[in-house]
Write a structure and sequence with these properties.
It is a single chain. The chain has one domain: Ferritin (Up-down Bundle), CATH 1.20.1260. It is built from 6 helices and no strands. α1 packs parallel to α3. Helices cover about 75% and strands about 0% of the residues. By secondary structure, the protein is mainly α.
């Protein structure tokens, strides 16, 4: 019976981890407006700017991967591993992730977006580095995320430069 409860608890932690990350994304989406009449639509965009429809599915997938990564680390913590610092780093990057949408879209400022996305990248990297010794798969699951944020940083800088 205890094993069954443990599996149920694990499933709940997995679902909670994925929901937490997706909730951060939903909060950020509150500030995001990219429609035809939005401020974003008026910006001069670089040639490599992806179509607007691509962002929602990419971010949803990334938030799911982040949630699974978080779950794997939490489960290692349940085995007695010290996960305090990695979880703090994860929390900070998740907060910065949400704040970026408010800085870039909410304040309509590519400059403020850059001021948030730069430390976001650093905290994602630090999270990957600290997750790796705890659970390698957890670190690898964050690689698409840092790759996308690297691209987003370049895009954010291009938008800033083109719209001074």
């Amino acid at each position: 019976m205890e094993e069954h409860t443990s599996k149920k608890q694990s499933v709940m932690i997995l679902i909670g981890s994925i929901l937490l990350c997706n909730c951060a994304g939903l909060l950020g989406a509150l500030a995001t407006s990219t429609g035809q009449d939005s401020w974003y639509a008026t910006l001069i965009k670089p040639s490599f700017n992806p179509p607007s429809w691509l962002f929602a599915p990419v971010w949803t997938l990334l938030y799911v991967l982040m949630g699974i990564s978080l779950f794997l680390v939490i489960m290692e913590g349940k085995k007695g591993r010290n996960i305090r610092i990695p979880l703090i780093l994860f929390a900070v990057q998740l907060i910065l992730n949400t704040l970026w949408s408010f800085a870039f879209f909410g304040l309509e400022s590519p400059l403020y977006g850059l001021l948030v996305i730069t430390p976001l990248w650093v905290f994602i990297f630090a999270t990957i580095v600290t997750f790796y010794p705890i659970r390698k798969a957890a670190a690898w699951l964050l690689v698409p995320y840092i790759a996308w944020v690297s691209f987003a940083t370049i895009l954010n800088y291009a938008l800033y430069s083109l719209n001074l």
